[in-house]
Write a structure and sequence with these properties.
Largest sheet: none
Order of helices and strands: HHHHH
Oligomer: single chain
Number of strands: 0
Distance between the termini: 17 Å
Helix content: over 70%
Shape: elongated
Radius of gyration: 19 Å
Amino acid sequence: MELSLKLTSLLLTVLLTGLSAGLCFTWSNTVISGIGKLDNFSYLQAFQQMNRTILNPAFFIVFFGPVFLNLINTYVFRNVSTTLIWLLISSTLLYFFGVVLITIFGNVPLNEVLDKSDLNTLNIEELRILRDSFEIKWNRLHLIRTISSSISFLLLTITFLIKD
């Protein structure tokens, strides 16, 4: 594969991983604290709407793109420096386990429970119980995603410093 095509693939991976890390950071830094101040009904309703809205083609490209591109990069750069390969492998594993799998097996099931809830039929106590069973778990899982995506982005950024 031509060098410029390899670098374009790596640059695109860095971009998508950076966008994913930025999304996670922004969500952690602003959205969670902002909606956390809402009453139970408003919080749950806002979260339902955000979860429904985020599922769009742009999100799926940014979210899943780094996994596929990292795998491609690990293959196409397999014959270069050992340091570069380990940075790519580490970034791939960290993003896959710390972002993708945490989302699929942690956040998404919580989102699905919330999505299936008809908030208009719940009383004040049921709203409190639903929020209590959702918010802390979801936020902890999201913190793992934020840290994992940020470190993955950092590792990919470091690959550009490798001169071999």
